Amino acid sequence: MPKKSFNIIGKPVIREDGYEKVTGSSPFADDINFPGQLYGVMIRLPLAHAEIKKIDYSAIRGNKLIKAICDTSDIPGSRKIGVVRWDQPVFCSEKIVTPGDVVAMLLGESEQELHTLKTRIKFSARKLPVLTDPSQALASTAPLIHPELKSNLIVHHPLRKGNVEKGFANSDFILEQTYTTSAVEHAYLETETVVARLFPGRRGIHIIGSIQNPFTTRRLVAAVLDWPLTKVQVEQATLGGSFGGKDDLMNILAARAAIGALKTAKPVKIRYHREESILESYKRHPYRMHYKVGYNKDGRIIAMKIDILADGGAYASMSPFVTWRTVVQATGPYDIEHVWTDVRAVYTNNPYTGAMRGFGSPQPIFAQESLMDEIAVRLNISPPEIRRINALRSGSVTATSQKLKEHDVNLIPVLQEALKKSSFIKKWQKNLKDNPVQDWIDLSHTKTGILHPDQFRERKEVYRKGIGLALSLRGCSLGAEGIDAAAAYLSVQPDGSVYLMCGLAENGQGLRTTFSLIVAEVLGIDPDQIYYLDYQTRSIPDSGPTVASRSTLMGGGAVKNAAEQVRERLENQLRKYWRIPKNTQFHFRKNKIRARGSKPLKISFSDLCQLAYSQGINLAALGWYPGPQVHWDEATGQGPAYFTYVYGCQVAEITLNMTTGEVYLDRVTAVHDPGKVINLLGAQGQVYGGVTQGAGYGLWEQINAMEGQIMELNFDQYLIPTSKDIGEIIPVFLEGRDKYGPWGAKSLGEPTLELTAPAIANAIRNASGQRFFNLPLNLEELILRRKLRPEDLTRGSER
Amino acid sequence: MNTTPEIMIAFNLDRALKLLSGEKSAPLAGGTDLVPGIHQQAKRFAAIERLVDITRIPELKQVNVKNSGTTIGAGVTFSEILTHPRLGSEYPLLTKAAATIGSVQIRNRATIAGNFVNNAPCADSVPPLLVYDAIVRICSLKKSREIPLQEFLLKPYKTQLQTGELVTEIFLPPPPQNFGGDFYKLGRRRGVAISRITLALLLQTEKKKISGLRIAAGAVTPIGRRFYDIEHQYVGTEISAAGLKFLAVNVGKAILEETGWRWSSPYKLPVTQQIVYQILCKLT
Fold it and tell me: Per-residue pLDDT averaged across B210-222, rounded?
């Protein structure tokens, strides 16, 4: 359906759950309770790597406050689960491989009493050497985290294009640099919560919780119970944030709650407090990234060799897919003839790492966009210039030898727009002129901490301005990770009101509103007429996980397909009713349908629906949107990895305090091509959130594990930015055309996050003349070029 | 988890002191330190069996600014300090510090005495109170007494407060005349930040000489403290860039001597010296 002008698409629309969210009336999972409900409290051993000898419950067995103790022996089906590799026990029985591990669960009516009682449980275990350094994981002397797998290697993705050694030989210059990033926490406001209860007559189990991917939960709970999928009914409660984080752990918690419900025949609720949530949940992968680049005097990059090591922690989780996106995108949005990339993920005893907004892109973009500026500095050209010389254009070939075609390759346009909107060149040049680079005070080697008189900084030299940019392309949806298709259910009622549901889940991103707008556009009705149904796995086909910024593209495609099916039936009915030719076209607008042509024929949407019902027309439809074929050669890392791409450029403007290392984020200009924007307000919201989260990644956030034990277990120590820390954010959308997605709408959620940290790092370079290689760029990193951390885990306030 | 303490509400001071006279009682005002501490099962609160809510006692909510000095009730919140019509002009370092504490919501609850009675090293209002020579008024059923704040603070999380005693008031002598001053706080972020460094400086100059000097720091020393030796050493000295640098270095050395070399020292020590120097330059 070609469209020139839209009724509602692209306009700013307040999200349908906005009022409830702001007033706090949305019912979250912990607001849902059932009569006779028990609580599940987890039992952990304070160890990072150990062989379990015995768990001794004698001190609490028989206590009437405990209704049951569940462990692995209660599991009828699969005792280990995982989203890719089934290596994570629901309850550990042989080994502890990271401190978040759970060996058993106490069930009882009083959660508080259970927390007290669990401290009386005794255990004996044989401590094993703890592996915390991923660079040691593949050494022959390294302890094996999962001995049955014979190796700590989770995955290795190679990519080979051209002849990299020949490329280096033909390059004028070679630059080698190493960058690192930290583990970070999703920091969703709502902690993990789930309730499981048996349906009467054990006809199945009902699971309701803060679940990101209900179909994944269903699949894994069914495997653990050894039940058919149909008997596991998973319902999504209103989610208080996910950012990729309510997947693996929620699946495990759902399985534990289901085991408890099965054992006691009572509803079982599990809810985590913040410390427990941060302790057991997975994080974003810390990466160590070594880049070797060959380039010529004219700025052309000839060859790139990349070696990346990801710390997967104790379980494989999403590591194979996260690192796959990394291998596809590690060279950034640049046209490079010779590429040799190796990305590996390994097991350690650290907290495990998995999916988080960005999914394997924020790390390499930090490295590769920092590197681009370093090359520009060495060639004495500007940051935009080095990117223009190397940027992918329409018809260019990516590192995986995919030709970019059939959509607007808007890389240079987003760059140009960002330069214009931020007055980049003028500011960048002024900063270079204003900021002497030779006065950096190097305190990285100070031993005494006492300043020499010539190390003092004068007041007027404290603040510096800096501006920096970063550029990316991002493959949309799952790509060659897996099967990519989505479903939507639409049912128009006789009065013209509409039920809608999609197989992708509302995780707070606003997809219900987006999908309602798509239906409203196709049927020419008001979005308020659409009643969005609660998400239940029994009511809609499996549409894959709600990940990879794929909802608007895939789910939106399915929703549009369903709406178009119904519209087509309504149109056919009208042609009969008005006795007009079969090729007559219609306008659906403002709840009215008009036939195009000379005769002024008109009917209201509700009258038309009434008419269709009276004629026995089916006004319900199941929409389907299958992604096109993509493929991938594992051995060479070559192939059309994703069926389409989006492009973005962010400019960060900062004030740097040269005395303290504080970085104030004054302004971020975020120019994105997400394809067609469906809800302008929703899209802007994605940018505000993504930039803020990206700034947190760049400047503050870091999970430190000491012998596997996390030091930052709450928000007093794990610092995310507050509203006072983030300056102005300016979202700009440059809508490229694409044949995929509803009217060419593609992806935005993750692109908004992945660019902010490198843009800030490049702004710091502009302000100080210094390059910083290790995220986060916190106070100590800037002043000392290293991180400092306490020697023990005790907080002062705990004393 | 500890058993939850019982909570009693006192509507006047006598009743509060009576309720607090037992071994296992503690006063509860804003609760911004106590309540999270109890949830964390902090050892310093482990013995508490009774909390006495003192937020409704009128005597503890008074602020009196007089020529002879100022009294601030122990239960006055930081929001109340910030909105008081006279405190800001009389004791600007105190209100500047108050504005940096936590967030609006925390400042609406947190009280001035609550900030130092638990003697956390990072209590933001302590350095300003120290340079204003604050005196703590303490009451119990039997007697009342007054102690300078610096003596009241013994060591991290320990004060001179005895069982049955309650801090009722802070007395600030009239602000020293013709002094310039500044309060400085460094946190890891701008809002809801625990301080990494706090400094309060009061300086008086006369004919290019330092004629009066008061320096206090928090978060860089085990507890908030004044640097009396340095103050005495520098009163009467000529103001010069080199001299101010040495003054800053001496503060650094005093911190190092008192605190020892800690994990945070490589950062905090040099930055504290920089800030001391920059504030001194601003004030001279």
Answer: 97
Residue B89: give the domain boundaries: 58-172
Return d(Cα B19, Cα A499) in angstroms, integer.
61
Query: How does strand A301-313 pair with strand A287-295?
Result: antiparallel
Alpha helix ranges (H) inside chain B:
13-19, 34-39, 78-83, 87-90, 92-100, 104-109, 112-117, 126-131, 149-152, 228-234, 241-259, 265-283
Which domain does A595 fall in, by range? 18-25+485-626
Q: Are the C-beta atoms of residues A167 and A292 closer than 8 Å to each other?
A: no
pLDDT, mean of residues B3-32: 94
Q: Give dist(CA B136, CA A456) in Å, integer.
A: 37
Band the pLDDT of B3: cuts 50, 70, 90. Answer: low
Helices and strands counted in chain B (H then E)? 12, 14
What's the rounded Cα separation, in Å, for the pair A430 and A434? 6
In this structure, the answer to whether residues B63 and B128 fall within a common structural domain is yes
Distance from CA of A460 to the nearest CA of B (A): 9
What is the domain count for chain A?
3
Kindly state whether residue A239 falls inside one of the protein's structural domains.
yes
- Is A620 near chain B, with CB under 8 Å? no
* DSSP-derived pairing of the beta strands A726-733 and A663-673: parallel
Q: What is the DSSP string of A72-125?
A: GGG-SS-SEE-SSS--EESS-SSEE-STT---EEEEES-HHHHHHHGGG-EEEE
Q: What is the pLDDT of residue A445?
A: 86
- Kindly state the tokens that stand for A620: 């319900």
B195 part of a folded domain: yes
Q: Given an 8 Å threshold on Cβ–Cβ distance, is B190 in contact with A725?
A: yes
Q: B236-258, pLDDT tens digit by residue?
A: 999 999 999 999 999 999 999 99
Residues from chain B contacting residue A719 (CB–CB below 8 Å): 188-189, 193
Q: Report the pLDDT value the prediction gives residue B40, as an integer from 0 to 100.
A: 83
**Partner B contacted by A6 (CB < 8 A):** no
How many angstroms separate the CA of residue B234 from the nearest CA in chain A?
18
Length of chain B counted residue by residue: 284
Tell me which residue in A116, A446, A453 faces B266 most closely, judged by beta carbons.
Answer: A446
Residues A642 and A601 grouped into a single domain:
no
Cβ–Cβ under 8 Å, residues A191 and A273: yes
Query: In the listed set A571, A601, A626, which residue is the last one of a domain according to the structure?
Result: A626
Contact call for A453 and B186, based on CB within 8 A = no
Distance CA A655, CA A652 (A): 10
Total structural domains within chain B: 3
Token pair 């006809």 in the structure block, residue: A203
pLDDT of residue A551: 97
CA B36 – CA B45 distance, rounded (Å): 10
**Is A788 near chain B, with CB under 8 Å?**
yes
The whole-chain average pLDDT of chain A stands at 96
In which residue are the tokens 């809508």 written?
A735
Query: Three-class SS of residue A206?
Result: strand
Q: Does any domain span residue B1?
A: no
The last residue of a domain, from among A606, A626, A646: A626
Which of A659, A725, A799 is facing B189, going by the closest CB pair?
A725
Residue pLDDT, tens place only, B57-103: 999 999 999 999 999 999 999 999 999 999 999 999 999 999 999 99
Nearest to B40 by CA among A40, A189, A716: A716
Q: Would A695 be classed as within a structural domain?
A: yes
Could you give the dihedral angle defined by the CA atoms of residues B122, B123, B127 and B132, in that order, rounded to the nearest 10 degrees?
-170
Report pLDDT for A511. Answer: 96
pLDDT tens, residue by residue, A421-468 = 999 999 999 999 998 877 888 898 888 999 999 999 999 999 999 999
Q: Where are the beta strands (DSSP E) in A280-386?
A: 287-295, 301-313, 338-347
At a CB cut-off of 8 Å and minimum separation 6, what does A579 contact? none
pLDDT of residue A685: 97
Adjacency order of strands within the sheet including B25-28? B6-9, B50-53, B25-28
